[in-house]
């Protein structure tokens, strides 16, 4: 079964064709990041406009690259939640038009379920059940994936998401938006023990996260050094900060695995590209005899191939939509359409 999938939840306009949830026939991503960089973050109104301009050529290219026409695909998948509402609406309405014109089924996909599915494209041997740490620009969740469309959230962030925490600290260190990748690269050349930063815990919750205090601690460090006329080593600061964030993520994730008896651990979302997080979990899982999976680097960030993969499993579960499908800016991962 071939699915043409669309993604427009944030600042990437993407289209892809995926076969049987596992094989990428084409994947096209048009990123707007250079334009949003000028403003230090994603400007929703600009994002919507750029999606409107890009959605047709990006979809055409995805079909061309797969050597297919609309008539050859079996269904249309689309991200409908969560994300910027104006951005989501572009993909949803375009997908509705395609489904109506072609008479193919329309399959709505939750963006974070798509991030999880990036692993099905990377690792053919991976099947549920598993425990997954979803770490992205807007979300930080520990989820039990009992089956492809049966998901339970065990813990989540109470304030900033992991990606947001990396981007905000990177900005304070003078790196352009989105600074997560540059902070990670810079940290490779630093000493993670150079600065003492907190490892915040959420009182009364074993699996929830809180990153805003950690972010404030690093901003204060930089501010106080500035006032004293001192310059801090950015590589050391980046390494110390990255280590603190990864400690928090790993601690709760491993605890959840121990408590639930999970034997397979999976990473998903943009922050799953983080070098230290990947190394740590590779090591920890090997030590404990757990399986460990993470998406191939090009599939960590937003793309439509991951949406095409999840759409296949949603379709098999009967989760299709009619022409009254609407976008939603927020939606729990647990909820089925
Ligand atoms: P969401 O998926 O929650 O809706 P999003 O789609 O904007 O948010 P993603 O595309 O999944 O987010 O991930 C982008 C985030 O990942 C950014 O915050 C970016 O800085 C971060 N990121 C990317 N690579 C790395 C890295 N190597 N280390 C740390 N953070 C990274
Ligand atoms: Mg993006
Ligand atoms: Fe995302």
Automatic annotation (TrEMBL):
Q: Where in the cell is it found?
A: Cytoplasm
Q: Which cofactor does it need?
A: Fe(2+)
- InterPro entries given in the database record: ATPase_NBD, Gcp-like_dom, KAE1/TsaD, TsaD
What is the first-listed, main subcellular location in coarse terms?
A: cytoplasm
Annotated Gene3D superfamilies: 3.30.420.40
Q: What class of enzyme is it?
A: transferase
Cofactor binding, per record: Binds 1 Fe(2+) ion per subunit.
List UniProt keywords, sorted A-Z: Acyltransferase, Cytoplasm, Iron, Metal-binding, Transferase, tRNA processing
The EC code for this enzyme is 2.3.1.234
Indicate which residues the UniProt annotation says bind substrate. 134-138, 167, 180, 184, 274
> Which positions does UniProt annotate for Fe cation binding?
111, 115, 302
Give residue ranges for domain Gcp-like: 23-308
Question: Which catalytic reaction applies to this protein?
Answer: L-threonylcarbamoyladenylate + adenosine(37) in tRNA = N(6)-L-threonylcarbamoyladenosine(37) in tRNA + AMP + H(+)
One example GO MF annotation: tRNA N(6)-L-threonylcarbamoyladenine synthase activity
Name the Pfam families for this protein.
TsaD (PF00814)
Q: Which HAMAP family match?
A: TsaD
User: Belongs to which family?
Assistant: Belongs to the KAE1 / TsaD family.
Q: Its function?
A: Required for the formation of a threonylcarbamoyl group on adenosine at position 37 (t(6)A37) in tRNAs that read codons beginning with adenine. Is involved in the transfer of the threonylcarbamoyl moiety of threonylcarbamoyl-AMP (TC-AMP) to the N6 group of A37, together with TsaE and TsaB. TsaD likely plays a direct catalytic role in this reaction.
- According to UniProt, the name of this protein is tRNA N6-adenosine threonylcarbamoyltransferase
Q: Gene of origin?
A: tsaD
